[in-house]
Amino acid sequence: MTHDKTPDDIGLIRILQPETPSSFRLICFPGHTHSTGRYLGLAELLLPTVEVLLIQYPGDSGDLGDHRPEPVCDSEELASRIFETLAGFTGSRLAFFGHRAGARLAYRVAERLERETAALLQTLFVSGSNAPCVHAPLGPPTLRCRIVALAAGRDPGLTPAGVRAWRRCTSGRFDLETLSGARGCLDSHKREVVNIVHDQLMSLSPFDPPEPPGPGGELRLLDPTHHPRNARTMDAE
Known about the structure:
about 240 residues; 6 helices; disordered C terminus
């Protein structure tokens, strides 16, 4: 993994898979900083048909090291900066996976993606999070993509109504997946989470293959002074 971004930058970590063409790009929005290892573990279980990229927040070194994970803030300002970083992903079968506050960030970015670009978001996976509209007045859905909500059955931070409220966020299909146990399902139910993601993506109707990524087949950030980051080592949360 390389660290060529300043503390205030938003970056992308590209988790390398074997040289196999991928059918989907899964953009992961962590709920905490310094949690690369958790998503590297998920990527290692996914088939290489799913390419995994990870949002790297400002002040996030990627590796845990001596750092203490801090919850991210699901603000409009941060969502806007992430949206700008992800601009240009119109030629891929794209899915978002957000955990905790990262789920609400992913939702904010998905809204702008559908509203302001021609990109087609296939699926929004939201894990361990109540919907942002749980206490909002009823209104038209803001998304068209499929939403899949993942919830641990004994997570004290969730309510049944809060998780089901994700249904109100899309005019597309909604699925709710309940996992046994308490919070921490990305660790204790890692394989189940991977199976859900894979089965949901593979169930989508095929269409023309996406356009290839940028020169050399690598993901490139909008800022030409930065380069793709490759995650190869596991860290601990």
